[in-house]
Here is the input.
Amino acid sequence: MRRTVFTEDHEAFRETIRDFIANEVVPVYEDWEAAGHPPRDFYRTLGALGVYGIEVPEEYGGAGESGFKYQAVVAEETARAGVGFGSSGVHTGLVLPYLLEYANEEQKARWLPGFVSGDIMTAIAMTEPGAGSDLAGISTTARLSEDGTHYVLNGAKTFITGGVLADLVLVVCRTSPYDPDNRRAGLSILCVDTTSPGYTVGRKLQKIGLRSSDTAELAFADVKVPVENLLGDEGRAFTYLTHNLVQERLAIAVGAYAAAAAAVRFAVQYVKDRKVFGKTVAEFQNTKFTLADCESQVMAQQSMVDRALELYQIGGLTVSDAAAAKLFCTESASGVIDKCLQLHGGYGYILEYPIARLYTDNRVFRIYGGTSEVMRSIVAKSLGL
Here is the structure.
């Protein structure tokens, strides 16, 4: 289906990213997966390529573009090649909106130039061992010092993407006592320098997918965080998190669609080459019908993603819209990728084939950013249910 969501500039950027992936990522990607993340300098390479600065204002070294379309191009092209850019998606897709929206001018001048260059890699720490989708259950605390110059941070976080190599982590914590009558109150965001005494990176978690993206446990033991590192207003983090989850869920929907489209592409290539019983797998009616069904699902995902991208561009993508897009695209993509792997037979279970990576990487799309069950609750609420 012909797309109209991207301009000539987006397509030129796509060609640059596609060539970069083919030359600089695909040949070494297995090494990254074995290590659990790309080399640290790779992020500086992406910075030099301009990937991190697209949405950053020009005065801080960026291009000053708005919307999510350039990031969507990156997501589509990495999926097309069956690779990833490590924790870059968190850096630009999750953390950047918080810095652009809630950082003051001094903070932007301090952090954004390094953000753009890749010298400052970021992560966001929300999830805790006892608090996932229920953000109001966060128990990590930050107490303001008596002289009012810094917070003292204590607690633990888990499932933090980019947590191993991050230089600056946005930590969601309680800056006032827990109130059972208003569980959402008292949460704040502190931007924590990872070289701070008391800040510890715990286990690097071993995942079934996204193995080139480091995910870690973090611990804070009396970490001193200057008051100048408070992001936005104290006590308003829950509102900030809710606002920015729209882009996060859009990003996941885009990633799921891109993975499904890539799976069909890999399956078509494979069945044309693979021969069984004296003919190619593509010649069997079951193969043709299965891939026709998959392509139809991908087209439906594409239509929803493109509409969501356009709405987000003009500020019209609602919380329920984003939830519906994430729900449909992630659930549909899982079925498509599973069918495409099946067409690969035994080779689909072997990690050297990109379809195997797509299969394991895709599974988390229905979990992070809010589970499918949470998305259903949001959509149902929009219906007055």
In short: The radius of gyration is 21 Å. The first strand starts at residue 122 and ends at 125. The mean pLDDT is 94. The beta strands are 122-125, 141-144, 150-161, 168-174, 187-193, 199-204, 215-226, 230-231, 275-276, 279-280.
